[in-house]
Amino acid sequence: MSTPDRSIQQCVGPDLENIEVMRNHSVLFRAECKRLIQDTDKACKRMQNDDNKQLDQRVRDIQFLKKELELKLEEIILEIDVS
């Protein structure tokens, strides 16, 4: 009976070692994926923040130009009315 037990251990032994190695690789892979997700999230938030700042600046620029055009239009209307 010891012979079948030994052969079972020999068959199961390497499989258990492979399973343990695969499990360790899986743990490392999951940790790497988690790190990449966090890095990507930080990068996306940073880019979104930068884009929001640029859009806010553009809106302020447009508002300024609109005011300038409105003032110029008022000047032109006054010139026309005076003429």
What's this model, at a glance?
InterPro entries: Tektin-like, Tektins. The model has no long low-confidence stretch (mean pLDDT 89).
Walkthrough of the structure:
This protein has 83 residues and is mainly alpha-helical. It has one helix at 2-82. Microtubule inner protein component of sperm flagellar doublet microtubules. It is found in: Cytoplasm, Cytoskeleton, Cilium axoneme; Cytoplasm, Cytoskeleton, Flagellum axoneme. It holds the Pfam family Tektin.
Write the layout of secondary structure elements.
Elements: H1 2-82
User: Which percent bin holds the helix content?
Assistant: over 70%
**How far apart are the first and last residues' alpha carbons, in Å?**
120 Å
Spell the H/E element sequence.
Answer: H
> What percent strand?
under 5%
Largest sheet: none
Question: Which term fits the overall shape?
Answer: rod-shaped
| Rg | 35 Å
Number of strands: 0
Q: Spans of 5+ residues with little confidence (pLDDT < 50)?
A: none
From the helix content, strand content and strand pairing, which structural class follows? mainly alpha
Mean pLDDT: 89
List keywords for this structure.
83 residues; mainly alpha; flagellum; cytoplasm; cilium; cytoskeleton; Tektin-like
